[in-house]
UniProtKB/TrEMBL annotation:
InterPro entries: Trp_synth_b_CS (IPR006653), Trp_synth_beta (IPR006654), Trp_synth_beta/beta-like (IPR023026), TrpB-like_PALP (IPR001926), TrpB-like_PALP_sf (IPR036052). It is an enzyme of class 4 (lyase). This is Tryptophan synthase beta chain. The modification N6-(pyridoxal phosphate)lysine is found at K116. PROSITE patterns: TRP_SYNTHASE_BETA. The beta subunit is responsible for the synthesis of L-tryptophan from indole and L-serine. Its cofactor is pyridoxal 5'-phosphate. Pathway: Amino-acid biosynthesis; L-tryptophan biosynthesis; L-tryptophan from chorismate: step 5/5. Its EC number is 4.2.1.20. Tetramer of two alpha and two beta chains. One of its GO terms (cellular component) is cytoplasm. GO terms for molecular function: tryptophan synthase activity. Residues 83-405 form the Tryptophan synthase beta chain-like PALP domain.
Length: 424
């Protein structure tokens, strides 16, 4: 039992099991294929009513986003509105503590406080070029919802955000931000009232309004082309890492990249330009909750089996008869019972090392970064930071970790934990 009275695994640190028949990393191309698959994961499994919408998006998205006029508008907004490039910050005290060279990719310093804005700007420009007038989105921690509401305010689009009632309560500051930005926030009271359920309701809405509505999915999940499209918009992260490392280290590649994964958008952006560079080791940290064997976990890659969720074939937390199980994490942005197909493939092929991080490990890592570097991370990012407590790195290693968001939205959780620690 832990101090909260909850059962935990004897050893809270887990690594995704490796099977002998998995393909070796250097034999693979890890980008999406022409049919929307990463290995055997991906595809588009959608209701008939959405078929025309998704097919049109598949036909048009590459043509539109590769257009020089689109790229100029996208890049100008990233620079002048978001504030990119985000810094690559050397963390001297963390580096000393863990005996390696640690850099932090500071997505927490973006406008709206997280990496999510990279994708929402890209998708709102795409939607406008496709003649859409109404935007819907799902959100868990609220960062994607805020980013979507922000770009809708910027472009004058109607915005509806679906959010689980549980998350509305624990992330009420972000709800207030969305409302101030002009979005309609619709609480979802079905299921566990978290991210999965918000996504279900957003898809139902899309089915009812297919002609005028664009669904801005916030992560590398959903039917093709969404996982690829979101990864492309987020790839600005790894594009900048290459340039920034060249300036700081005299080489454009690190030894390790670390990012948290829920659906996997910040990890996809962090890994994107290094997927096929096997000099670079990839580490993804997922939420183990109270422990992967406790029944209170969101460690999808560790616990999931192949299935279909929200339009894609991927790893899914499910019962033996295929019913999706409810995930749990202290982090509202990581409690999703699926995973982006790109990450399912990276795990299965052993291209990425998957670490499961408990609530307590994440909280400890958040307080550590705050104390050592003066940076308060989002709880999602804290899961990535906890990898340093699980894995030993060499003194000569260059390790880049993406701080996907800032901790403003999680202050109530942090304060409760801090006050509890003071009285124990």
């Amino acid at each position: 039992m832990n101090k909260k009275g909850c059962r935990t695994h004897d050893s809270p640190s887990f690594v995704y099991p490796r099977q002998e028949n998995m393909q070796q990393p250097n034999t693979m191309n890890y980008n999406v294929d022409k049919n929307g698959y990463y290995g055997r994961f991906g595809g588009a499994y959608i209701p008939e009513i959405l078929h025309a919408n998704v097919e049109n998006l598949k036909r048009e998205y590459l043509r539109i986003i590769d257009d020089p006029a689109f790229q100029k508008e996208f890049r100008d907004l990233l620079a002048d509105y978001v504030g990119r490039p985000s810094p690559l910050t050397f963390a001297p005290r963390m580096s000393k503590r863990y005996g390696t060279k640690i850099y932090l990719k500071r997505e927490d310093l973006n406008h709206t406080g997280a990496h999510k804005i990279n994708n929402t700007i890209g998708q709102i420009l795409l939607a406008r070029r496709m003649g859409k007038t109404r935007i819907i989105a799902e959100t868990g921690a609220g960062q994607h919802g805020v980013a979507t509401a922000t770009v809708c305010a910027l472009t004058g689009m109607r915005c509806i955000v679906y959010m689980g009632a549980t998350d509305v309560e624990r992330q009420h500051l972000n709800v207030q931000k969305m409302q101030m930005l002009g979005a309609e926030v619709r609480p979802v009271r079905s299921g566990n009232m978290t991210l999965k359920d918000a996504t279900n309701e957003a898809i139902r809405d899309w089915c009812c309004h297919p002609a005028d509505t664009h669904y801005i999915i916030g992560s590398t999940v959903g039917p093709h082309p969404y996982p690829d499209m979101v990864a492309r918009f987020q790839s600005v992260i790894s594009e900048e890492i290459k340039k920034q490392l060249q300036a700081k280290e005299g080489r454009d590649w690190p030894d390790y990249l670390i990012a948290c994964v829920g659906g996997g958008s910040n990890a996809a952006g962090t890994f994107y330009h290094y997927l096929n560079d096997t000099r670079v080791k990839l580490i993804a940290a997922e939420a183990a909750g109270l422990g992967i064997d406790t029944g209170h976990s969101a460690a999808t890659i560790h616990l999931g089996r192949e299935g279909i969720i929200h339009g894609a074939r991927t790893l899914v937390m499910q019962t033996p008869d295929g019913q999706i199980t409810e995930p749990y994490s202290i982090s509202a942005g990581l409690d999703y019972p699926g995973i982006g197909p790109v990450h399912a493939n990276l795990a299965e092929t052993r291209r990425a090392e998957i670490r499961a991080v408990t609530d307590d490990e994440a909280l400890k890592a958040a307080f550590e970064l705050t104390a050592l570097e003066g940076i308060i991370p989002a709880l999602e990012s804290a899961h990535a930071l906890a990898v340093f407590g699980q894995k030993k790195f060499k003194p000569e290693d260059v390790v880049v970790l993406t701080v996907s968001g800032r901790g403003d939205k999680d202050m109530e959780t942090y304060v409760k934990h801090f006050n509890r620690a003071d009285h124990e």
